[in-house]
Amino acid sequence: MIKFLMKCFQKSDGSDFLQEDLSNCPVSKLCIILEHAMPYEGSSELHALALKSLVDISSRQPKLVSSRYVNRLLWLRTLLGHVDADAREATSRLLGITSSALSSTAALDLLSELTSTFDQNRPSRFENYHGLLCAIGYITAGCLKESYVSLCFFHDTISFAVCLCHFFATCALHESLVHSLFA
């Protein structure tokens, strides 16, 4: 059903979908359908498809999507640890798009919250780290586009991301070594 709805959306020119009241236009209703396709017990493939569809919608209607999810950042943040990599990446993109509707201080606060999650030194799943790292990248790109980020802050964020990538590469190397020794 999602694939059919998205094909209909892509075939349209989009002008007939938008109205004065963004909360009641057909695109908003499509977003609601996609949100309802992601119940907690739903399959990871369905979640990924619905999230990727929201990203597709945001490529044509970025203001509608960003204004719709600006008050649902907590919900999006919980999806950053999704078991499906495509779902994590789509969620990260949505967070990046949504950050464009935030004020400069709110966007920088969100970025600081996400980076501080790594400093808490609590054990976490790889999926959480991957989702956070992707989100940090998309939000940083959005902040750079809007000129919210100073070069110093940008440098610190990139250095942090590089260290994190190095850590993951080391973990993957250790894991593959252990698998090869005991296989």
UniProtKB/TrEMBL annotation:
Q: Carries keyword Plastid? A: no
Which GO terms are recorded in the biological process aspect for this UniProt protein?
A: ERAD pathway
Q: Which residues cross the membrane?
A: none
Keywords, A to Z, come to: Repeat
GO cellular component term, pick one: cytoplasm
**What superkingdom does the record give?**
Eukaryota
Q: Name one GO molecular function term.
A: molecular adaptor activity
The record, for PANTHER family, names:
PROTEASOME ADAPTER AND SCAFFOLD PROTEIN ECM29, TRANSLATIONAL ACTIVATOR GCN1-RELATED
Name the record gives this protein: ECM29 ARM-like repeats domain-containing protein
